[in-house]
# Entry
Amino acid sequence: MAESAAYLRTPAAIRERCNAVLALGLDDRLEHFAVDLSALEKVAARVAEVTRQAYPDLQVPIHGRFRHFEVGAVDRIALLRRRLEDRPPVERARALIDLVVPSVLLDAGAGAAWRYEEDGVAYSRSEGLAVASFRMFMDGAFSARHDDPLRADAEGLARMDVESLARAFQIGKDNPLVGLEGRVGLLRALGQALVARRDLFGEDPRIGGLVEHFHGRTRAADVLAKVLDGLGSIWPGRVEVEGQNLGDVWPHPLVGLVPFHKLSQWLTYSLVEPLAEAGVEVVELDELTGLPEYRNGGLLFDLGLITAKHAGVTGKRHRPSDPIVVEWRALTVALLDRVADAVRAQLGKQDLPLANILQGGTWSAGRKVAAERRPGGAPPIEIESDGTVF
# Structure
Protein backbone atom coordinates (compact mmCIF):
# COMPACT_ATOMS: atom_id res chain seq x y z
CA MET A 1 0.00 0.00 0.00
CA ALA A 2 1.13 3.53 -0.76
CA GLU A 3 2.66 5.30 2.23
CA SER A 4 3.37 8.77 0.81
CA ALA A 5 2.55 11.73 3.03
CA ALA A 6 0.46 13.31 0.28
CA TYR A 7 -1.69 10.20 -0.18
CA LEU A 8 -2.21 9.66 3.55
CA ARG A 9 -3.74 13.14 3.76
CA THR A 10 -6.55 12.38 1.30
CA PRO A 11 -10.13 11.23 1.98
CA ALA A 12 -9.48 8.39 -0.46
CA ALA A 13 -6.70 7.09 1.78
CA ILE A 14 -8.92 7.33 4.86
CA ARG A 15 -11.62 5.23 3.18
CA GLU A 16 -9.18 2.74 1.68
CA ARG A 17 -7.38 2.00 4.95
CA CYS A 18 -10.54 1.96 7.06
CA ASN A 19 -12.23 -0.39 4.63
CA ALA A 20 -9.15 -2.62 4.78
CA VAL A 21 -9.70 -2.88 8.54
CA LEU A 22 -13.40 -3.59 7.95
CA ALA A 23 -12.54 -6.36 5.50
CA LEU A 24 -10.39 -7.98 8.18
CA GLY A 25 -13.25 -7.65 10.63
CA LEU A 26 -15.70 -9.28 8.26
CA ASP A 27 -13.22 -12.16 7.87
CA ASP A 28 -12.92 -12.40 11.69
CA ARG A 29 -9.23 -11.58 11.51
CA LEU A 30 -9.13 -8.57 13.86
CA GLU A 31 -7.72 -9.04 17.34
CA HIS A 32 -10.10 -6.80 19.26
CA PHE A 33 -13.42 -6.47 17.41
CA ALA A 34 -15.92 -8.43 15.37
CA VAL A 35 -18.50 -7.01 12.97
CA ASP A 36 -22.15 -8.11 12.96
CA LEU A 37 -23.83 -6.75 9.83
CA SER A 38 -27.18 -8.12 11.01
CA ALA A 39 -27.31 -5.09 13.35
CA LEU A 40 -27.01 -2.60 10.49
CA GLU A 41 -30.74 -2.03 10.05
CA LYS A 42 -31.22 -1.58 13.80
CA VAL A 43 -28.57 1.14 13.82
CA ALA A 44 -30.09 2.80 10.77
CA ALA A 45 -33.57 2.70 12.31
CA ARG A 46 -32.35 4.47 15.43
CA VAL A 47 -30.58 7.13 13.37
CA ALA A 48 -33.66 7.62 11.20
CA GLU A 49 -35.86 7.93 14.29
CA VAL A 50 -33.61 10.55 15.88
CA THR A 51 -33.38 12.44 12.58
CA ARG A 52 -37.16 12.61 12.16
CA GLN A 53 -37.56 13.82 15.74
CA ALA A 54 -35.05 16.64 15.30
CA TYR A 55 -35.92 17.53 11.70
CA PRO A 56 -39.51 16.50 10.89
CA ASP A 57 -39.26 18.09 7.43
CA LEU A 58 -35.97 16.24 6.84
CA GLN A 59 -34.27 19.54 6.01
CA VAL A 60 -31.15 18.50 7.87
CA PRO A 61 -28.16 20.88 8.02
CA ILE A 62 -24.58 19.69 7.73
CA HIS A 63 -22.68 18.50 10.77
CA GLY A 64 -20.53 21.56 11.44
CA ARG A 65 -19.44 23.47 14.51
CA PHE A 66 -22.09 26.11 13.81
CA ARG A 67 -24.78 23.72 15.04
CA HIS A 68 -23.27 23.83 18.53
CA PHE A 69 -23.35 27.64 18.55
CA GLU A 70 -27.16 27.33 18.37
CA VAL A 71 -27.53 25.40 21.63
CA GLY A 72 -30.23 26.62 24.02
CA ALA A 73 -32.18 28.13 21.11
CA VAL A 74 -29.78 31.11 21.14
CA ASP A 75 -28.68 32.34 17.70
CA ARG A 76 -25.18 33.36 18.72
CA ILE A 77 -23.97 33.71 15.14
CA ALA A 78 -26.64 36.37 14.64
CA LEU A 79 -25.07 38.26 17.54
CA LEU A 80 -21.72 38.08 15.80
CA ARG A 81 -23.19 39.07 12.45
CA ARG A 82 -24.66 42.22 13.96
CA ARG A 83 -21.18 43.27 15.02
CA LEU A 84 -19.89 42.52 11.52
CA GLU A 85 -22.75 44.03 9.50
CA ASP A 86 -20.74 47.04 8.29
CA ARG A 87 -17.94 44.86 6.91
CA PRO A 88 -17.75 43.50 3.34
CA PRO A 89 -18.64 39.82 2.78
CA VAL A 90 -15.05 38.60 2.54
CA GLU A 91 -14.20 40.25 5.86
CA ARG A 92 -17.25 38.68 7.50
CA ALA A 93 -16.06 35.31 6.16
CA ARG A 94 -12.61 35.90 7.65
CA ALA A 95 -14.13 36.59 11.06
CA LEU A 96 -16.34 33.49 10.92
CA ILE A 97 -13.31 31.36 10.01
CA ASP A 98 -11.37 32.98 12.83
CA LEU A 99 -14.14 31.89 15.20
CA VAL A 100 -14.71 28.35 14.01
CA VAL A 101 -11.11 27.07 13.78
CA PRO A 102 -10.12 27.65 17.44
CA SER A 103 -13.54 26.41 18.49
CA VAL A 104 -12.99 23.12 16.67
CA LEU A 105 -9.52 22.78 18.15
CA LEU A 106 -10.95 23.28 21.63
CA ASP A 107 -13.65 20.65 21.13
CA ALA A 108 -11.94 17.44 22.23
CA GLY A 109 -13.83 15.58 24.99
CA ALA A 110 -14.46 17.79 28.02
CA GLY A 111 -15.19 15.01 30.51
CA ALA A 112 -18.46 14.40 32.31
CA ALA A 113 -17.93 16.88 35.17
CA TRP A 114 -17.27 20.14 33.33
CA ARG A 115 -19.96 22.79 32.75
CA TYR A 116 -20.01 26.29 31.27
CA GLU A 117 -22.61 28.78 32.45
CA GLU A 118 -24.01 31.49 30.17
CA ASP A 119 -26.80 33.80 31.35
CA GLY A 120 -27.73 31.36 34.10
CA VAL A 121 -27.88 28.31 31.82
CA ALA A 122 -25.28 25.55 32.12
CA TYR A 123 -23.96 23.74 29.04
CA SER A 124 -21.67 20.72 28.94
CA ARG A 125 -19.55 18.68 26.52
CA SER A 126 -19.33 19.89 22.89
CA GLU A 127 -22.05 22.50 23.26
CA GLY A 128 -20.48 23.93 26.40
CA LEU A 129 -17.08 24.09 24.72
CA ALA A 130 -18.69 25.82 21.73
CA VAL A 131 -20.37 28.47 23.88
CA ALA A 132 -17.21 29.04 25.91
CA SER A 133 -15.05 29.45 22.80
CA PHE A 134 -17.69 31.71 21.20
CA ARG A 135 -17.63 34.00 24.23
CA MET A 136 -13.83 34.03 24.18
CA PHE A 137 -13.90 35.10 20.54
CA MET A 138 -16.50 37.81 21.17
CA ASP A 139 -14.32 39.12 24.02
CA GLY A 140 -11.29 39.38 21.72
CA ALA A 141 -9.34 36.60 23.44
CA PHE A 142 -7.74 35.38 20.17
CA SER A 143 -6.87 38.84 18.79
CA ALA A 144 -3.78 40.93 19.50
CA ARG A 145 -5.47 44.07 18.17
CA HIS A 146 -7.54 46.12 20.57
CA ASP A 147 -9.11 47.98 17.63
CA ASP A 148 -10.25 44.71 16.00
CA PRO A 149 -11.16 42.08 18.62
CA LEU A 150 -13.19 39.86 16.28
CA ARG A 151 -10.26 37.98 14.79
CA ALA A 152 -7.85 35.16 15.62
CA ASP A 153 -4.31 36.11 14.72
CA ALA A 154 -0.88 34.64 15.28
CA GLU A 155 0.11 36.93 18.13
CA GLY A 156 -3.19 36.56 19.98
CA LEU A 157 -3.11 32.77 19.78
CA ALA A 158 0.58 32.41 20.62
CA ARG A 159 0.15 34.29 23.91
CA MET A 160 -2.59 31.98 25.20
CA ASP A 161 -1.77 30.41 28.56
CA VAL A 162 -3.32 27.89 30.94
CA GLU A 163 -4.54 30.52 33.39
CA SER A 164 -6.34 32.53 30.70
CA LEU A 165 -8.08 29.52 29.20
CA ALA A 166 -9.01 28.16 32.64
CA ARG A 167 -10.57 31.49 33.54
CA ALA A 168 -12.46 31.79 30.25
CA PHE A 169 -13.76 28.21 30.53
CA GLN A 170 -14.80 28.70 34.17
CA ILE A 171 -12.54 25.86 35.30
CA GLY A 172 -12.17 25.33 39.01
CA LYS A 173 -11.76 22.71 41.67
CA ASP A 174 -15.41 21.72 41.34
CA ASN A 175 -15.52 22.23 37.57
CA PRO A 176 -12.57 20.33 36.04
CA LEU A 177 -11.95 20.16 32.30
CA VAL A 178 -10.09 17.22 30.76
CA GLY A 179 -6.98 18.13 28.78
CA LEU A 180 -6.63 21.83 29.62
CA GLU A 181 -2.88 21.94 28.92
CA GLY A 182 -3.32 20.08 25.63
CA ARG A 183 -5.88 22.63 24.43
CA VAL A 184 -3.60 25.52 25.28
CA GLY A 185 -0.79 23.78 23.41
CA LEU A 186 -2.97 23.45 20.32
CA LEU A 187 -3.89 27.14 20.33
CA ARG A 188 -0.27 28.18 20.71
CA ALA A 189 0.79 25.77 17.98
CA LEU A 190 -1.92 27.26 15.77
CA GLY A 191 -0.43 30.71 16.28
CA GLN A 192 3.00 29.39 15.33
CA ALA A 193 1.59 27.68 12.22
CA LEU A 194 0.11 30.98 11.03
CA VAL A 195 3.52 32.63 11.22
CA ALA A 196 5.24 29.71 9.48
CA ARG A 197 2.75 29.76 6.60
CA ARG A 198 2.32 33.43 5.75
CA ASP A 199 1.81 32.28 2.17
CA LEU A 200 -1.51 30.80 3.29
CA PHE A 201 -2.55 33.12 6.11
CA GLY A 202 -1.23 36.52 4.99
CA GLU A 203 1.55 38.87 6.02
CA ASP A 204 -0.53 39.89 9.04
CA PRO A 205 -1.28 36.23 9.69
CA ARG A 206 -4.76 35.31 10.86
CA ILE A 207 -6.73 32.11 10.33
CA GLY A 208 -9.30 33.86 8.15
CA GLY A 209 -6.58 34.50 5.58
CA LEU A 210 -7.45 31.05 4.22
CA VAL A 211 -10.49 32.55 2.51
CA GLU A 212 -8.24 34.12 -0.14
CA HIS A 213 -7.39 30.66 -1.51
CA PHE A 214 -10.94 29.59 -2.42
CA HIS A 215 -13.12 30.87 -5.23
CA GLY A 216 -16.40 29.87 -6.87
CA ARG A 217 -17.15 26.15 -6.60
CA THR A 218 -14.53 24.31 -4.54
CA ARG A 219 -14.35 20.58 -3.82
CA ALA A 220 -14.45 19.58 -0.16
CA ALA A 221 -11.32 17.47 -0.68
CA ASP A 222 -9.47 20.60 -1.82
CA VAL A 223 -10.58 22.47 1.30
CA LEU A 224 -9.36 19.56 3.43
CA ALA A 225 -6.04 19.55 1.58
CA LYS A 226 -5.57 23.25 2.30
CA VAL A 227 -6.51 22.76 5.96
CA LEU A 228 -4.00 19.93 6.32
CA ASP A 229 -1.36 21.88 4.40
CA GLY A 230 -1.65 24.86 6.69
CA LEU A 231 -2.67 23.31 9.98
CA GLY A 232 -1.90 19.59 9.75
CA SER A 233 1.42 19.90 11.54
CA ILE A 234 -0.24 21.09 14.77
CA TRP A 235 -2.33 17.95 15.30
CA PRO A 236 -0.55 15.66 17.74
CA GLY A 237 0.60 12.42 16.16
CA ARG A 238 3.17 9.70 16.47
CA VAL A 239 3.97 9.13 12.82
CA GLU A 240 6.26 10.96 10.43
CA VAL A 241 6.49 10.20 6.70
CA GLU A 242 8.89 12.04 4.41
CA GLY A 243 9.83 14.26 7.36
CA GLN A 244 6.25 15.41 7.92
CA ASN A 245 4.16 14.97 11.05
CA LEU A 246 1.01 13.33 9.71
CA GLY A 247 -1.14 14.21 12.71
CA ASP A 248 -4.18 11.96 13.15
CA VAL A 249 -2.61 8.91 11.47
CA TRP A 250 -1.88 5.75 13.44
CA PRO A 251 -0.31 2.34 12.77
CA HIS A 252 -2.31 -0.87 12.69
CA PRO A 253 -0.39 -4.17 12.82
CA LEU A 254 -2.19 -5.71 9.82
CA VAL A 255 -3.02 -2.70 7.66
CA GLY A 256 -0.15 -0.29 8.17
CA LEU A 257 -0.79 3.42 8.61
CA VAL A 258 -4.45 4.33 9.01
CA PRO A 259 -5.33 8.03 8.55
CA PHE A 260 -8.42 9.58 10.15
CA HIS A 261 -7.92 13.38 10.19
CA LYS A 262 -11.02 13.68 12.34
CA LEU A 263 -10.53 17.27 13.49
CA SER A 264 -9.40 18.39 10.03
CA GLN A 265 -12.41 16.81 8.36
CA TRP A 266 -14.81 18.24 10.92
CA LEU A 267 -13.14 21.60 10.42
CA THR A 268 -13.72 21.24 6.68
CA TYR A 269 -17.42 20.54 7.25
CA SER A 270 -17.47 23.55 9.59
CA LEU A 271 -15.92 25.87 6.99
CA VAL A 272 -18.77 25.38 4.51
CA GLU A 273 -20.90 28.15 6.02
CA PRO A 274 -18.11 30.70 6.57
CA LEU A 275 -16.87 30.22 3.00
CA ALA A 276 -20.40 30.69 1.69
CA GLU A 277 -20.29 34.17 3.26
CA ALA A 278 -17.57 35.02 0.71
CA GLY A 279 -19.48 33.45 -2.18
CA VAL A 280 -17.54 30.16 -2.16
CA GLU A 281 -19.65 27.01 -2.66
CA VAL A 282 -18.09 23.85 -1.23
CA VAL A 283 -19.18 20.87 -3.33
CA GLU A 284 -18.73 17.09 -3.34
CA LEU A 285 -18.93 16.88 0.45
CA ASP A 286 -19.44 13.13 0.25
CA GLU A 287 -15.76 12.79 -0.67
CA LEU A 288 -15.14 13.34 3.04
CA THR A 289 -15.76 10.48 5.46
CA GLY A 290 -17.75 9.95 8.61
CA LEU A 291 -16.01 11.18 11.73
CA PRO A 292 -14.21 8.58 13.90
CA GLU A 293 -15.13 9.95 17.30
CA TYR A 294 -16.72 8.36 20.33
CA ARG A 295 -20.36 9.30 19.62
CA ASN A 296 -20.42 7.72 16.18
CA GLY A 297 -18.23 4.80 17.27
CA GLY A 298 -20.18 4.41 20.49
CA LEU A 299 -23.46 4.13 18.59
CA LEU A 300 -22.12 1.28 16.44
CA PHE A 301 -20.70 -0.49 19.48
CA ASP A 302 -23.70 0.01 21.77
CA LEU A 303 -26.13 -1.32 19.15
CA GLY A 304 -24.01 -4.34 18.27
CA LEU A 305 -22.74 -3.52 14.79
CA ILE A 306 -19.24 -3.62 16.30
CA THR A 307 -18.65 -6.11 19.14
CA ALA A 308 -15.73 -6.71 21.49
CA LYS A 309 -13.73 -9.92 21.26
CA HIS A 310 -12.36 -9.72 24.80
CA ALA A 311 -12.99 -7.99 28.11
CA GLY A 312 -9.97 -5.72 27.74
CA VAL A 313 -11.81 -3.58 25.20
CA THR A 314 -14.14 -2.12 27.82
CA GLY A 315 -12.20 -3.07 30.94
CA LYS A 316 -9.61 -0.30 30.89
CA ARG A 317 -8.75 3.08 29.40
CA HIS A 318 -6.89 3.25 26.09
CA ARG A 319 -4.60 5.76 24.40
CA PRO A 320 -5.47 7.05 20.92
CA SER A 321 -2.43 5.19 19.55
CA ASP A 322 -3.51 1.80 20.95
CA PRO A 323 -4.53 -0.78 18.31
CA ILE A 324 -7.91 -1.17 20.04
CA VAL A 325 -8.70 2.49 19.40
CA VAL A 326 -7.31 2.43 15.86
CA GLU A 327 -9.50 -0.58 15.04
CA TRP A 328 -12.58 0.99 16.62
CA ARG A 329 -12.14 4.26 14.76
CA ALA A 330 -11.40 2.56 11.43
CA LEU A 331 -14.47 0.33 11.69
CA THR A 332 -16.52 3.40 12.56
CA VAL A 333 -15.45 5.26 9.42
CA ALA A 334 -16.04 2.30 7.11
CA LEU A 335 -19.37 1.28 8.63
CA LEU A 336 -20.76 4.83 8.66
CA ASP A 337 -20.90 4.68 4.86
CA ARG A 338 -23.03 1.54 5.09
CA VAL A 339 -25.18 3.04 7.83
CA ALA A 340 -25.70 6.15 5.72
CA ASP A 341 -27.01 4.07 2.79
CA ALA A 342 -29.45 2.27 5.10
CA VAL A 343 -30.59 5.56 6.67
CA ARG A 344 -31.24 7.08 3.25
CA ALA A 345 -33.41 4.08 2.39
CA GLN A 346 -35.37 4.29 5.64
CA LEU A 347 -35.94 8.04 5.29
CA GLY A 348 -36.73 7.80 1.58
CA LYS A 349 -34.06 10.43 0.83
CA GLN A 350 -31.43 8.90 -1.42
CA ASP A 351 -29.76 12.26 -1.97
CA LEU A 352 -29.13 13.04 1.71
CA PRO A 353 -25.38 13.73 2.06
CA LEU A 354 -23.27 11.94 4.64
CA ALA A 355 -22.52 15.26 6.38
CA ASN A 356 -26.25 15.71 7.00
CA ILE A 357 -26.71 12.14 8.19
CA LEU A 358 -23.95 12.73 10.75
CA GLN A 359 -25.90 15.72 12.01
CA GLY A 360 -29.37 14.18 11.86
CA GLY A 361 -28.12 11.68 12.77
CA THR A 362 -25.46 9.32 13.95
CA TRP A 363 -23.84 11.75 16.39
CA SER A 364 -27.12 12.57 18.16
CA ALA A 365 -28.21 8.93 18.22
CA GLY A 366 -24.86 7.95 19.71
CA ARG A 367 -25.30 10.45 22.50
CA LYS A 368 -28.88 9.32 23.21
CA VAL A 369 -28.00 5.64 23.32
CA ALA A 370 -25.01 6.33 25.59
CA ALA A 371 -27.25 8.27 27.99
CA GLU A 372 -29.68 5.34 28.11
CA ARG A 373 -26.95 2.84 28.93
CA ARG A 374 -24.43 4.60 31.19
CA PRO A 375 -24.61 7.29 33.86
CA GLY A 376 -23.58 10.62 32.38
CA GLY A 377 -23.67 9.25 28.84
CA ALA A 378 -20.03 8.13 28.88
CA PRO A 379 -18.72 6.30 25.79
CA PRO A 380 -18.66 2.48 25.94
CA ILE A 381 -14.90 2.41 25.40
CA GLU A 382 -12.80 4.75 27.51
CA ILE A 383 -10.10 6.89 25.93
CA GLU A 384 -7.29 8.70 27.73
CA SER A 385 -7.94 12.23 26.46
CA ASP A 386 -5.36 14.99 26.54
CA GLY A 387 -7.73 17.42 24.87
CA THR A 388 -6.22 17.09 21.41
CA VAL A 389 -7.67 14.09 19.52
CA PHE A 390 -11.24 13.27 20.58
